[in-house]
């Protein structure tokens, strides 16, 4: 029982620490690269940049508090969504960091004047931070909530809803700051989305291996005892030899593949191995399916 409670505590600490780091990195990208050039790259931060241009007395971080608070309240009233504490924590922590870096403890900003560089680096840095937060089931709020409303009333898929909302913000920035800035905002939205998808795949991708070997017991023993992964035996029959085998099926983390292949080579150089990419894996040692 004590061990279980300790594991839960460390898992809780890891999740919220990574969400905090992800929000901090996202805020740095917004404040250092996007805000100085009014690049409204979607989300609550993009809308806040536009509203700050209309009402400069209210800072961008404060606008983000207002936008996210309004959207969450509207979602609860209309959709009855039960927001987890993790979602609320991540959403408002990002607003806090943006306000902190923009007003209280200003950080160095890119002042080279190159809109393209500001767009590229702002998009990639914010995508990196958001991917870290998303990997722990955190959410930055904003257009995610708008997408849920679109889905409810117009049956628009969530992914398309987010894109529509973000593009609308980019178009609005063009009216507020000029067509040139609006086009850079839309470019930033596209780059940010592509970067998040790429990074998330890299963070969550696992490997599935099918192994046929005369020494499958030794290989299985290594996987279970040395790598702490479960192994499944799949009964197979060779069509040419008509010989029965117990094929090993195992899912491991991408970074562990070199270790396992090296062990297989050492144990049985004649082993037949098939490696496949796995986007997601749930269960012991991987993602917690109860958090979906």
What keywords describe this structure?
alpha+beta, Alpha-Beta Plaits, four-stranded antiparallel sheet
What does this structure look like?
The protein is 64% helix and 10% strand. Strands 2-3-1-4 form a four-stranded antiparallel beta sheet, with no helix packed on it. Helix 1 runs parallel beside helix 4 and helix 5 packs parallel to helix 8. With 292 residues, it is an alpha+beta fold.
The beta-strand count equals: 4
Gap between N and C termini, in Å?
25 Å
Please, how many helices?
A: 10
Note the beta-strand portion: 5-15%
Major pleated sheet:
4 strands, antiparallel
- Helices and strands, in order, run as HHHHHHHHEHEEHE
Helix content: 55-70%
Radius of gyration: 24 Å
- Order of strands across the biggest sheet? 2-3-1-4
Oligomer: single chain
From the spread of the alpha carbons, the general shape counts as elongated
Arithmetic mean pLDDT: 84
Task: Give me the secondary-structure topology.
Blueprint: H1 2-34, H2 43-54, H3 60-79, H4 85-104, H5 115-135, H6 143-154, H7 158-177, H8 179-204, E1 206-212, H9 216-226, E2 232-237, E3 244-253, H10 257-267, E4 272-278
Antiparallel strand pairs: 1-3, 1-4, 2-3
Concise structural overview:
This protein is of the alpha+beta class. It is 64% helix and 10% strand.
